[in-house]
Each structure stands twice: as structure tokens, then as C-alpha cells.
Amino acid sequence: xxxxxxxxxxxxxxxxxxxxxxxxxxxxxxxxxxxxxxxxxxxxxxxxxxxxxxxxxxxxxxxxxxxxxxxxxxxxxxxxxxxxxxxxxxxxxxxxxxxxxxxxxxxxxxxxxxxxxxxxxxxxxxxxxxxxxxxxxxxxxxxxxxxxxxxxxxxxxx
Length: 158
What we know:
The chain is an alpha+beta fold. It has helices spanning 20-29, 31-34, 123-131, 134-157; strands spanning 9-16, 41-47, 54-60, 66-77, 81-85, 88-89, 93-94, 99-108, 111-120. The chain has a seven-stranded antiparallel sheet with strand order 1-9-8-5-4-3-2. A two-stranded antiparallel sheet has the order 6-7. α1 (20-29) crosses α4.
């Protein structure tokens, strides 16, 4: 798991065995199916994919744990990139920041290079995310994203 001291960035990359359109659709339209490692679940409250749009969800664990996430979308390049941060809530209301997330999608023939990254506001948040199991958790989510994207691609081919 590489890290950059200046940006305090953690990331995962995965070559997904599905075309970019299917991966994008899986990310944007089926987020609840893949976002967090099972047996955790995700309840999507809102995902407004435009600069300034609200992104809010609740992740729930098997023992009743809940982790509410809220932030704003900073940038969307359709089919290629989504940037989000929890530095603000909807309406540009300041929040206690933890990270800025970037998800990038690069076509590679009939496959897609997927890169999910998290940049942290502080060394403490960076270390906390590492210890929470960033690499394993985001890696599992990437594999779950691939499964959804493959299903979407197969359905489109039928």
C-alpha cells in the first residue's frame, strides 16, 4: 500500500474485467451493492453526482455498528472520475474533515483500470485509516465493484 507523505494518500488499484461503461454504472447506480465489505451493508441516502452535490450514506455492521458518512462531490468527469470530500456537508456547511476520496476509471480495451484513493487532512487521520484496514477494505470493495460491473456487462450483452 503506497503512501505519499505530502498528501497522506492511501490507494488501491484493480484491473477490472469489465468495460468502463459497466464499471461506471456499477459505481454510480449500484453503490449499495459493493461499497463496503460484506457482511456490512450500505444505505444510500443521496448521491448527487455534480460539483456541490450531496453524498450521504450509512454503513451498518453485523453487530449493529453504524458509520454515517456525509460530504460533497467536488468534481465529476462522467465515465472517468469522481472526487468527494467530507470537509463540507451539503450547502457548503463546514464539517470535521477526515479525507478526500478520488475514484478514477481508465479504459484498457474491454477492461478498466480502477483506482480508489483517500487523501487525509492530518497524519492522525491517515494513520487511523491505515489501522482501520484501508487496503483490505477498499480492496474487497473493488472486487465487489468488479462483480457488479461484470453482471451489468453480461446483462448488456444478452
